[in-house]
Write a structure and sequence with these properties.
The complex is a heterodimer of chains A (223) and B (229). Chain A is of the alpha+beta class and 223 residues long. Chain A is 56% helix and 7% strand. Chain A is globular and about 50 Å long. Chain B is of the alpha+beta class. In chain B, 55% of the residues lie in helices and 7% in strands. Chain B has a four-stranded mixed β-sheet, covered by helices on one side. In chain B, helix 1 links the parallel strand 1 and strand 2. Classes of the chains: A alpha+beta (223), B alpha+beta (229). Chain B: It comes from Phasianus colchicus.
């Protein structure tokens, strides 16, 4: 028994990737269990491990946590990545929730039909460059600090970094016009824990492919 | 003297209703600005007070908070409805996540065609009775306490009551087979601040009607073609 957090999901990004990012950024090693069949999911449900019969599941500190936000908030709180008071936490929550709306588009992208994919990429590009990235560009410009909130590394920085890289995979030039975010991306990439996570051999998962989509459809029985 | 929080939204439930519930349960009076015209909304957008160009927005303690979850987290934390430590907070977050998913299925309901409403109703009731209500019934059964977390009223209880009442509006006997939830419902409803919110004349909003749908579509220029789950 290692005492390390244990993540149960599919071998792919999906809704677990933000959790992998946050644990890695906090310098926390973790174990992973990858589901491959629907039977495995149903068995977990029968065991009582899944409160709402859904993944992600993270076993940490004696708890079986489900619901991404609950998991992420707990990790952020435990590893001092959630600001110093309620007001900083509110800022972090606002930023993270906004980014999460953008990430939702990326999450759903692999499941859209081929003919819709080009339009979806255009939507991602539009939302990123007109709604979300300008906000963070402005925040960084206004206070001139390295981190989004409280002059200190937080969950918000990790989430923004993940989002920037995920959008760039779809829209490579998306940061042109956002010099603060370009500098932010460079700084984040050089933080030791993040640098390690971005290297080959880390728990970071590759972009979803057809195999991933097929596995998700099979295990979660989506039509 | 602290100013009252000000809620910016439509005159209807939508995503703001959980905020009204939580403030009311915490005994906090608040004011509301209702969006009624496109011009009003564009003026708000131009003024830069909507961080991601969206409502809900709540002015509270000198902040202009957006993103429903951020708003609710702040209120819960400020008014001691968020548990006593990180672990209780995690439980509350988990439980609220579930009721949020459940109530989320009803957000689009007013915008659906009559035929799709029937489908969506069946879908939500099925999810409630097979996935969500059993989970909360078990939580209450396992610890035998009056409240979901830490033997004390928290945001999780308020959110669950809101979800139960919304489901009962769709199926009046939604709680049949869940005796502990029935007792929970009575108990939480009789808490003075909540009882007051449930009485006529409070800021609680009625079920969204065609007028609400029309207003949202007119102001946002969106949601013309909403599909059921």
């Amino acid at each position: 028994m290692s005492g390390k957090p244990r993540l149960t999901y599919i071998n792919g990004r999906g809704r677990m990737e933000s959790i992998r990012w946050l644990l890695a950024a906090a310098g926390v090693e973790f174990e992973e269990v990858f589901l491959q069949t629907r039977e495995q999911l149903l068995k977990l449900g029968q065991d009582g491990s899944l409160l709402f019969h859904q993944l992600p599941l993270v076993e940490i500190d004696g708890m079986k946590l489900v619901q991404c936000r609950a998991i992420l908030s707990y990790i952020a709180g435990k590893y001092n990545l959630y600001g110093k008071d309620l007001k900083e936490r509110a800022l972090i929550d606002m930023y993270v929730e906004g980014i999460s709306d953008l990430m939702q588009l990326i999450l759903m992208f692999p499941f859209s039909p081929p003919e819709a994919k080009e339009k979806k990429i255009a939507t991602i590009a539009e939302k990123a460059t007109e709604r979300y990235f300008p906000v963070f560009e402005k925040v960084l410009k206004q206070h001139g600090q390295d981190f989004l909130v409280g002059n200190r590394f937080s969950w918000a920085d990790v989430q923004l970094m993940e989002a920037i890289l995920a959008v760039e995979e779809k829209v490579p030039s998306v940061l042109s016009g956002f010099p603060q975010l370009q500098a932010f991306k460079t700084k984040m990439s050089n933080m030791p824990t993040i640098k390690k996570f971005l290297q080959p051999g880390s728990p970071r998962k590759p972009p979803p492919d057809e195999n991933y989509v097929a596995t998700v459809m099979k295990i979660f029985k989506l039509d | 003297m602290a100013a009252k929080p000000v809620l910016y939204y439509f005159d209807g439930r939508g995503k703001m209703e959980s905020v009204r519930w939580l403030l009311a349960a915490a005994g906090v009076e608040f004011e509301e600005v209702f969006l009624e015209t496109r011009e009003q909304y564009e003026k708000l957008l131009q003024s830069g007070v909507l961080m991601f160009q969206q409502v809900p927005m709540v002015e509270i303690d000198g902040m202009k908070l957006v993103q429903t979850r951020a708003i609710l987290n702040y209120i819960a934390g400020k008014y001691n409805l968020y548990g006593k430590d990180l672990k209780e907070r995690a439980l509350i977050d988990m439980y609220v996540g579930g009721t949020d998913d459940l109530m989320g299925f009803l957000l689009s309901f007013p915008f659906l065609s009559a035929e799709d409403k029937v489908k969506q109703c069946a879908f939500v009731v099925q999810k409630a009775t097979s996935r969500y209500f059993p989970a909360y019934e078990k939580v209450l059964k396992d610890h035998g306490q009056d409240f979901l977390v830490g033997n004390r009223l928290s945001w999780a209880d308020i959110h669950l009551l809101e979800a139960i009442l919304m489901l009962e509006e769709k199926k009046s006997d939604a709680l049949s087979g869940f005796p502990l939830l029935q007792a929970f419902k009575k108990r939480i409803s009789s808490i003075p601040t909540i009882k007051k919110f449930l009485a006529p004349g409070s800021k609680r909003k009625p079920i969204s009607d065609d007028k609400y749908v029309e207003t949202v579509r007119r102001v946002l220029r969106m949601y013309y073609d909403v599909k059921p789950n």
